[in-house]
Structures are given as structure tokens and as C-alpha cells.
């Protein structure tokens, strides 16, 4: 059987599953959001000045960049869940969050004296960040891996890594409401490390969980 025929056969098998793929991913997204929110509210909750902080650009930016990651990675992982799914254009959108961070960091370095750079990068909550973003994102990652299992990804490691990015972005968006560190330098460093950890777990787990 030729490769193209095999891909078409796998795609037809995927479409014949008991639940349509689009429905499965919508349910996965809703469930992941609920689970992340529940863990966040039980363990941390929003910071006392969260509502007032919505008037500050740095606080709002944390949600812009994390939700941009969720949107771009979620679209990509849905495409990767289908055998032969075209992920090229969607992969380019995944560059948007890092570019936003690079721009914000550049503006911060320009606006803030060099003597304050290290203080803003280290912040006051780095260990909490590295602990709770993976904790909040663990259940969503499991949900997205199960959604991948419902499909037939031909690149499971890449699919799992992107699933980890979705889970990490979602967890980081919730955590941002608690985090007292609003500096783009802090977000670019510690949020990125925590999200990368979930992406690594997803890449390692997907070949085992999402086998077909």
C-alpha cells in the first residue's frame, strides 16, 4: 500500500470513531479549562489586587501572551491529531507568543535602568511559578493526550509536545492572575521554563498514550 493510501485509510478510520474529532477536541478544551481552573482556585486563587491590576499593561500582557500560546498551540495540536494533517501554516502561528515576549522584553530593557534588570528577572515568586504552572497544567495535559489517543497522530512526539504547550499556556494564564511578578523579563524566563517542562512531559508521554 502506498503512503498516501495508508494516510487516507488512517484518516477514514479516525473519522469513523464513535465521537467526531472536532467534538472530542471541543470537549477536551472545556474539560481542561475546568480542571485547570479548579486546581488554581483550590491551591492559589487570584491575587488581592487582580481587578485593579487590569488597568496596568504589564499585568494584562501576561494574559495576552499566554492566551496567544493557548490559541495557536490548540489549533496546531488538533491538526496534528489527524494523520497527514497540514500543520505548516499553523506552526508559523506558534511563533507569535515568543515574538510578543521578545518585543515586551526589549521594551522593558529600554525603559528600565540596567541596575534593575536582574531584580525584575528573578522576581519574588520564581519557585512558586515553577511549581504551580506544571501542577495546574498536569490534568489539562492528560486530557489533551487522551484527545490525541482519540485521533491517529503520525508524529506523536511533536503532537505531545504541542499538547504540553497548550496545557502550559492554559496553566500559565490562570497562574498569571495570582503571580505578583508582572515584568516581561520574569514571564519570559520562568513562565517559559515551566511551560517547557510540560511540553517535554507531553513529548515523552504521547508515544505511549496516543498509540493507535
Explain what you see.
The chain crosses the membrane at residues 24-44, 59-81, 90-112, 124-148, 160-178, 190-210. It comes from Ancylobacter tetraedralis. Keywords: Membrane, Transmembrane, Transmembrane helix. This is DUF1109 family protein. The radius of gyration is 18 Å and the shape is globular. With 212 residues, it is mainly alpha-helical. The chain is 77% helix and 0% strand. The protein has one domain.
**From the alpha-carbon coordinates, what is the Rg to the nearest angstrom?**
18 Å
What is the helix content? over 70%
- Largest β-sheet summary: none
Q: Show unreliable segments.
A: none
Mean pLDDT: 87
Q: How do the SSEs run, as a string of H and E?
A: HHHHHHHHHH
Roughly what fraction of the amino acids lie in strands?
under 5%
Number of domains: 1
- Distance from N terminus to C terminus (CA atoms, Å) equals 18 Å
Q: What structural category arises from helix and sheet content?
A: mainly alpha
Report the strand count. 0
Shape: globular
Total DSSP helices: 10
InterPro entries: NrsF
Pfam families: NrsF
Keywords: Membrane, Transmembrane, Transmembrane helix
Protein name: DUF1109 family protein
Amino acid at each position: 500500500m502506498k503512503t498516501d493510501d495508508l494516510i487516507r485509510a488512517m484518516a477514514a478510520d479516525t473519522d469513523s470513531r464513535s465521537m467526531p474529532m472536532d467534538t472530542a477536541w471541543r470537549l477536551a478544551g472545556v474539560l481542561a479549562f475546568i480542571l485547570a481552573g479548579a486546581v488554581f482556585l483550590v491551591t492559589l486563587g487570584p491575587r488581592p489586587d487582580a481587578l485593579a491590576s487590569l488597568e496596568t499593561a504589564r499585568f494584562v500582557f501576561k494574559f495576552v501572551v499566554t492566551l496567544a500560546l493557548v490559541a495557536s498551540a490548540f489549533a496546531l495540536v488538533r491538526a496534528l491529531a489527524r494523520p497527514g494533517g497540514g500543520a505548516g501554516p499553523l506552526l508559523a502561528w506558534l511563533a507569535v507568543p515568543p515574538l510578543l515576549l521578545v518585543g515586551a522584553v526589549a521594551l522593558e530593557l529600554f525603559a528600565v535602568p540596567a541596575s534593575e534588570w536582574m531584580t525584575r528577572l528573578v522576581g519574588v515568586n520564581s519557585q512558586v511559578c515553577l511549581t504551580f504552572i506544571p501542577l495546574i497544567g498536569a490534568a489539562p495535559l492528560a486530557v489533551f493526550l487522551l484527545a490525541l489517543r482519540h485521533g491517529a497522530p503520525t508524529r506523536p512526539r511533536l503532537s505531545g509536545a504541542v499538547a504540553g504547550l497548550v496545557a502550559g499556556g492554559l496553566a500559565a494564564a490562570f497562574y498569571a492572575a495570582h503571580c505578583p511578578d508582572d515584568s516581561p523579563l520574569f514571564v519570559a524566563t520562568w513562565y517559559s521554563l515551566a511551560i517547557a517542562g510540560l511540553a517535554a512531559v507531553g513529548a515523552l508521554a504521547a508515544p505511549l498514550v496516543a498509540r493507535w
